[in-house]
Amino acid sequence: MATDDEIIRKRLLLDGDGSGDEKRLVTFMKSFIKWCNNPQDDEISANATFERLLAMLATCQTAIAKNYLVYQMNKRELENYHNINEELEYDALGKVIKQHPNKEETTKILTSLESQEAAEKELDGELELRRKQLFVLVHAINQMKASIGNNGQLKAETTARHGRENEK
Questions:
Q1: 94: three-class secondary structure by DSSP
Q2: pLDDT for 19
Q3: Once rounded to an integer, what is the mean pLDDT over residues 89-117?
Q4: pLDDT class for 115, splitting at 50, 70, 90?
Q5: What is the reported pLDDT for 167?
Q6: Sign of CA dihedral 128, 134, 137, 143
Q7: Residues 147, 149: Cα–Cα separation, whole Å
Q8: How far is CA 40 from CA 33, 34, 99, 121, in A?
């Protein structure tokens, strides 16, 4: 058994926007079939039924025209929405692009960075050369100290020898 929600949902789906279009069409079809199947003897009642059918048909045509116009309007609105959405995307993309420097500025920055890197490498080479020279200088100083120390010992030994020889 169908629940109330399912029944309401089906009726809304059949009825469309809730204006009773489906009911009007069903009523018109039933009335038309009844009018066709029951030839009436009385011309006045036949004309009245015919006029009622024409009025019902006009109402159905108006509803169809209205629904078609609503459909066209929704279609245009969808197109407008897509166009606005694209414009917003392009605007957002443009803002992101404007945040970054242009090609000329980027080229200048890259050239500057490359020249700084070259200068840094040159300074690193010069620093390494100075370190080597300092190492050689410190090594020479240590050798001189050792040599002076050896010379001082030799002098002391020579003086000590001379002193012993003079004593004898």
A1: helix
A2: 59
A3: 90
A4: very high
A5: 65
A6: negative
A7: 5
A8: 13, 11, 83, 111
Helices (H), the chain: 4-15, 21-37, 43-99, 103-167
Read off the tokens for 83: 């166009």
Q: 24 with 63: CB under 8 angstroms?
A: yes
Tokens of residue 56, six digits? 């019902």
Is residue 67 within 8 Å of residue 21, measured between CB atoms?
A: yes
Structure-derived torsion over alpha carbons of residues 87, 88, 92, 98, reported in degrees to the nearest 10:
40
Question: For the stretch 29-53, what's the b/e string if a residue is b when 16 or more beta carbons lie within 10 angstroms of its beta carbon?
Answer: eeeeeeeeeeeeeeeeeeeebeeeb
Average per-residue pLDDT in the chain? 84
- pTM to 2 decimal places: 0.46
Reported as a pLDDT band with limits 50, 70 and 90, residue 87 is: very high
